[in-house]
Amino acid sequence: MDIGLIAQHTVNGLMLGLIYSLVAVGFTLFFGVLNVIKFSHGDMLTWGVFTAFSVYLGLALVGLTSPSFTLVVVALIAMAAIGFLGAVIAKVLIIPLKGAPPLNTLLITLMLGTVLRESIRLFYPDGANPKHFPALLPDWSHSWGHFTLRFDNTAMLIVGILMIILVQIIIKRTKLGMAIRAVSQDEETARIMGINFNMVVYVTFAIGSGLAAFAGVIYGLYYNELSFNMGLLLGAIGFSAAAVGGFGNIYGAIVGGFLFALLQTVGAAALPFASAYKDVFAFGVVIVLIAIKPTGLLGEKETERV
Amino acid sequence: MSESSRKRSSFLPSLLAVLAGVVYMVFFLAGESQMVIFGLLLGAGLVVTAFKYLRVLDVVGESAKDNQRAFSIAVVMGVLAVSLYFYDDPFVLFLVGTVLVYVLTCLGLNIQFGFVGVLNFAGASFFGVGCYTAAVLTKNTAVPHLVIIFLGGLMAALLGFLILIPVLKTRGHYAALVTIAFALLFKTFLEVNDTLGGPQGLKCGALNLFGWDFNRDIVIGSFEGCFYLGYIAVILLLLILGFIMARRMEDSWVGLNMDAVRLDETVSACFGQSIPRWKITAFTIGNFYCGVAGAFYAMMLGYIAPTNFTFGDSLILLSIVILGGLGSMWGTVVATIIVILIPEKFQVLQEYRFLLFSALVIAILLFRPQGLLPRPLRSYITLKSSSNR
Amino acid sequence: MQNVLLSISKLGKNFGGVTALVDLDLDVARNRILGLIGPNGSGKTTFFNVVTGIYPTTSGKVAFEGEDITNFSPQKVYRAGVARTFQRSRLFLPLSIMDNITLGDHSQLNNGLFFNLFRRRALAAQYREIRDKSRDLITIFDPDLADRLFEPVVNLPMISRRRIEICRALISNPKLLLLDEPSAGMTHEETFRLIDDILHIKDKIEDLTVIIIEHEMSVMERITDYCAVLNFGQKICEGTYREIASDEEVQQAYLGVD
């Protein structure tokens, strides 16, 4: 087998795994804190990359075109904006529905996702057509024989992993993270201990949504493309990655994300006749895994009080 | 309030309501200009709101509830009347047929979500399974068409059964995941599969029952009716059958057990319910409805393509079920008319359908989760009338 | 006929790091009312949940009528003849009183699809039978409710809901009835009436054994034949109410250690 090809597949798989993990972490955080499946999460990714793209266009209009500077600004603004949007959604839709049956919340957020998606298609200029996301990272590369190491992919991978590690640190080592974990375990007790429940929820949603926006920017940089419905499949994949890893478990989300990417890559390599089947394969395996271990590979949090 | 102490209310109010509905429908379907349509919609909205506050709707509701059989017959007559009025208008008749097809489909989804609480995000895909079954069988085999319609339902039911099995013992969101994945992948699967026509789709043979070719116009003496009338008659029959079965299921121990499973799985288990049994039963039966509707629709339309079976289409179907009222069958009927008919006539809405109806569902779930026509309490009324009290 | 209906041996239950039940030994005599007492968190409801199969055991055995039912599914435990109520009243709120009570009798109803769809006459007969059965049962507790069989439960006050929940448990003629704080949310007077009703039922039904969890000591004194006291998942005392009430360890458990 061609080393270069394997390397290419590996890099591809890692990038996808990173993106999926970022989305899956959001899903798992939301479930941990509120027992909700926020199905509009994939579309937050779309809004993230569209925000970044719009800011980029705006900057270009003003004459600011230095790519690395633009990239940082664009990414930060997108993350902040979508993080804020996530908190707003939590305040307006999610918390008011706390007492409702969980499937209702899943439904509402799924419909919200459609609203987000369709809004771009209908109201963004030429929204129905895919757009070209600029290559804002320098395209340095170094080749060893058949294998080419690209700077941009490496940089994205490193930053992405750092981002995940950052979230991990926030959750495990900071007071905020402790509050989030407390609320995940037992809302009532957390409240009694003086934790501002609503604020924790808003912050959690902001973090998760910001991560999605970040994942969107990475997606845009890697595939050089953005389209209004890109979040749909990504959301479904993120959801299943979080599920297979175990809802509420961050490590599970990360494992799930990379696992799904691995399955897709294996599927694409093993079934070369149609790339669509790689998704069927990946989803199929994941569903079988969920069937075998319904609480997830790394364990789901206990939710019911009898 | 004991069972038989209240006097049975008159059939007149609901009969008048049906007549009013028929007249309105005729005007609505005949309307050409967008202004007229808009005016009619606005008018209907105002009248209904006014009636709600004047308690007229309650009176009609009581009347319908106490005279269910008569009311149902009146509605069927009304549909036939409207169809016959437009006897030579293929566009309107096709629309009527489409609405009836969707009512049957959404009844199936209502059985899944409204009765047992299983969320099916792939309703359009199971519908599509029925369509493709019909297309393949009509064009390549000599299987009788009634059997094909049945097989369409069977294929959908079987496929649904297969994808639900792995997640039977898990929580609700996993069933959602499985159907979401199925919905997303179904369209892609069809597009890459040239044996099933690929992105262009397939042609499907016209319905042919007992030698009668349904694509021929109906000529009886001096009466020349559009051929869609025949299709409407058949789908109406299928719908009536499906409606009665769903109603019977609801008004029996089966419906009761499904309610228990939906409302509280733990307690249901403690009283002997087999959770997987009822989930599978409802899911399979519901998909059967979708498949039957799909198979019939393919024959009526004559041609099918993967673009009809997207995730968005499945969401529209779910919107209908939620808008009408979970577990409410008449609610599904009303909601289907609203969601399918209005954008067809009021063209400006077509482009905004997904956006509009998703927002509507959000509003409903927030402010009126029981839907337009909330499901009435089980009163075993069909059992009481079929016995000597 | 065996004297011991339910036999618990060395029952243990852990949730991760939390120990809910430790080495529990208990024999429940047939036709008696056993009271289960203990401070909050002592494992009483967990005990019910393990016996009824909602939680798997970590260790130990549960035997019912001599048969080992350890780790049976809740459905199988129910079919063996065990029915229960829940600490937080868990009725099917949107459904009617009749629906709720009927759901307790699952094993007696013909639930086959064909029967329900096509044999409507026979179904109607079965419906009438169980309607009358439900009506008779609820009349014992509250004749007023019997006239409102088809009203939704969600609108009813707590005492009515508790009664309906007990009817739901009783309609299947269980051999063992587990009552989890049936008087929670009731006034003294309502509690008194409820206990009257339970004793009345116990007299009418031949073969009925009851285990009741309660915090109201006056209830325990009135209704129980004997009691067992749990603390931190362990049984610390067993005997008649008088005996356990005067036990030092029990008093300490409830009032705290000096």
Number of DSSP helical runs of chain A: 11
Distance between the termini of chain C: 47 Å
Q: Record the strand order, biggest sheet of chain C.
A: 6-7-8-3-9-10
Radius of gyration of chain C: 19 Å
- Bin the strand percentage of chain A: under 5%
* SS class of chain A: mainly alpha
The CATH topology of chain A turns out to be ABC transporter involved in vitamin B12 uptake, BtuC
Strand content of chain C: 15-25%
Question: Could you please describe the fold and organization of this structure?
Answer:
The complex is a heterotrimer of chains A (306), B (389) and C (258). Chain A has 11 helices and 4 strands; from the N terminus they run H-H-H-H-E-E-E-H-H-H-H-E-H-H-H. With 306 residues, chain A is mainly α. In chain A, helix 1 (3-34) runs antiparallel to helix 8 and helix 1 (3-34) crosses helix 9 (230-245). By secondary structure, chain B is mainly α. Chain B has helices spanning 12-30, 34-53, 56-66, 68-85, 90-116, 123-140, 145-164, 172-192, 228-250, 253-263, 265-270, 275-301, 311-324, 329-345, 353-367, 381-385; strands at 202-203, 208-209, 212-213, 218-220, 223-225, 303-304. In chain C, the strands form 2 sheets. Chain C has a 6-stranded mixed beta sheet, with helices on both faces. In chain C, helix 5 (120-141) crosses helix 7. The longest helix of chain C is centred in the middle third of the chain and has 22 residues, at 120-141. Chain C starts with a strand and ends with a helix. Chains in contact: A-B, A-C, B-C. Chain A binds chain B through residues 37, 93, 96-97, 100, 102-104, 106-108, 110-112, 114-115, 117-119, 122, 232-233, 236, 239-240, 243, 274, 276-277, 279-280, 283, 287-288, 290-291, 294, 304, 306, and chain B through 117, 119, 121, 163, 165-167, 169-174, 176-178, 180-181, 184-185, 188-189, 191-192, 266, 311-312, 315, 318-319, 322, 351-352, 354-355, 358-359, 361-362, 365-366, 369.
